[in-house]
Every structure is written in C-alpha cells, then in structure tokens.
Specification:
about 75% helix, 3 helices, mainly alpha
Length: about 100
C-alpha cells in the first residue's frame, strides 16, 4: 500500500465509523431518495452553522467541529448510495 492510498483510507475511516454509529442507532435504512435529500440538506445546514460559529459569532466552534459535521454528511451520502444500489436504482422500489 503506497502513502497516498494509506492517507485516503485514513481519511475515510471516520466516515465508516460514523456510518456504523448511525447503523447501530437507526438500523439499515432504505429511504426514498427525497427523504435522503432532506436528511442531507439538514446535514449541510449543520455544516454551515459550524462554519459560521467557527468564523464568526464569537468563535464558539472549531474547524474540528466543521470536519465532524462534514463526516456526518459524507456518512449519510454513502448510506444513500448504498440504499439506492440495494434497491436497484428504482425510485418505485424505495417507497
């Protein structure tokens, strides 16, 4: 394994960890893509809030908080991909 591959895997590990945490909390989810879109937009809002609180509003958050929210977003996006693949990429089957 070269250094670039090791770095890429190390950066994806928090996403897998978060996905596992979500799986334990919610179980295997097969939402309709519109539902996943709502969840992703909620996560984007949390990223935006963390950025705002890092760059202004008294600096009550840190870049680590921003990264944590981005990891949550990535985990939900990955779960969405997996759900679509499990359900054969057909919206009709995701109701």
């Amino acid at each position: 394994m070269n250094d670039i591959t090791r770095i890429e895997l190390n950066e994806f590990l928090p996403v897998l960890t978060e996905q596992h945490r979500q799986l334990k909390k919610w179980g295997l989810e097969n939402h309709h893509p519109y539902q996943y879109l709502s969840i992703l937009l909620e996560e984007v809002g949390e990223v935006a809030e963390a950025i705002n609180k890092t760059c202004s509003e008294g600096c009550t958050k840190t870049w680590d908080d921003v990264i944590e929210e981005l990891v949550h977003f990535q985990a939900v996006a990955q779960s969405m991909i997996e759900s679509i693949e499990r359900n054969q990429k057909s919206c009709e089957k995701l109701e």
